[in-house]
Amino acid sequence: MPASVVVGTQWGDEGKGRLVDLVAKESSLVVRYQGGHNAGHTLVVGGETFALQLIPSGILHDHIGCVIGNGVVVNPSVLLDEIAMLEGKGVDCSRLVVSPQAHLVMPYHPVLDELSEARKGDAALGTTKRGIGPAYADKAARVGLRVEDLLDPDTFRARLAAVLADKNGLLRSWGHTSLDADALATAWLRDLAPRVEPYVGDTVAIVHEALEAGQRVLFEGAQATFLDVDHGTYPFVTSSNPVAAFAGVGAGVGPTAFDQVIGIAKAYVTRVGEGPFVTELFDEIGDQLVERGHEYGTNTGRRRRPGWFDAVMIRQAVRLNGCTEVALTKLDVLDELDSIRVCVAYEIDGARHHQFPHLQSMLRRARPVYEELPGWRQDLSGATELGDLPPAARDYVSFVEQQVGVPVRYVCVGPGREQYVRFAA
Question: SS3 for 340-406, per residue?
Fold first, then answer.
């Protein structure tokens, strides 16, 4: 079955939406399989910028159907606002289908998120405070409400009343006012349910019918490998599994469907929030990467932490995701540098490690071992063919390719839809 996954290989913000938009041309369906509106994809099409949080990036292609899978947590207000934004720009959203099994981000989830972060003090995780973690926690605890509950008023009221009987006690203990279950249910059933219902459908059937017809289906996640709740830099991670293996779980597809996994990596590294970062830069070069790369969160506006490209991370991401290839984004951000560093190993307690540490305590002690390459000091933004890249830029990409162990298929040299070079055949 012809299924592809696009997955971030770092700490997110690699430009997955940009690559989904690029490779979606050959697909009939794009499926979002996890995360919530704590992640954003920014795309520039025809000079117009689209900032998406829940809806798959494929919505910007008229021929592509889009699915929000069961593995996603959905804030219906955010979803409806995003639909309104897209339709206001002439994008047809009737092609969007939402899984009835997707869990809802309820009003008490961001409140609990914010209160929990405040209580942690200096040990705060740096979440977006949008309620994504608490929504996934409720899913695991089997007290979550799902999209399908919005279509069954009696069930929605009963389940919400049961949940709030517990949540209100917690809210009060943390100094917050209680929520009125009846008033909340009435408002959601009146204002949101009728507007969400037209988009709800049998997403599992839709995905399987496309695959069985031999159509290419593209699966996109949010965040990235090292924010994965199992395989990331725990506890400084997200609350779901961005890794490629979860694409099947988050959409209702078996593992035999997938024949392509595209790992997305920036030509440098950034992360938002707290947590270890071996190649982090605190100097003028770091500031330059932030400013040239516009490294501020799509949703939060937070400044991202910058660092040199870390091949140790990507080698691990290639393993964890089964990447068949890599796409390198934002190469143009490095245009003005005289020299560029790539971390090829970690030094831990005097020993050199080429593979990612299996213990967090080791990662905290790791120091980068760099190879230094010459910069190209040339504007790459107009490059469309391999020959348009100066030799030093080609050498940098080839070095990255050799380090990560799989082909670098695409190289992006700007935010625009056509600003890319096909590197490997």
Answer: EEEEEEEEECCEEECCCCCCHHHHHHCEEEEEEEECCCCCCCCCCCHHHCCHHHHHHHHHHHHHHCC
Kindly report, residue by residue over 133-188, the tens digit of the pLDDT: 999 999 999 999 999 999 999 999 999 999 999 999 988 998 889 999 999 999 99
Known catalytic residue: 61?
no
Residue-level pLDDT at 1: 63
CA-based nearest residue to 35, from 18, 13, 50: 13
Could you confirm whether 354 is annotated as catalytic? no
Is residue 235 domain-shared with residue 157, that is, in the same domain? no
Nearest to 196 by CA among 74, 32, 91, 40: 74
State pLDDT tens for residues 117-141: 777 766 666 667 789 999 999 999 9
Residues 128 and 229 reside in one and the same domain: no
How do residues 61-81 score in pLDDT, each as one tens digit?
Answer: 888 999 999 999 999 999 999
pLDDT tens for each residue of 189-240:
999 999 999 999 999 999 999 999 999 999 998 899 999 999 999 999 999 9
| Helix or strand holding residue 339 (H, E) | strand 339-348
Domain shared by 192 and 211, yes or no: no
Same domain, 208 and 174: no
Q: Looking at the structure, do residues 229 and 334 belong to the same domain, yes or no?
A: yes
286: left (phi over 0), alpha (psi -120 to 50) or beta: alpha
| 45 shares its domain with 114 | no
Domain housing 188: 103-145+152-197
Whether 182 is covered by a domain: the verdict is yes
**Identified catalytic residue from 37, 41, 103, 231:** 41
Catalytic residue among 13, 113, 138, 332: 13
Look up residue 312 and give its two tokens: 């140790």
Which residues does residue 353 pair with via DSSP β-bridges, in sequence order?
Answer: 346
DSSP class of residue 125?
-
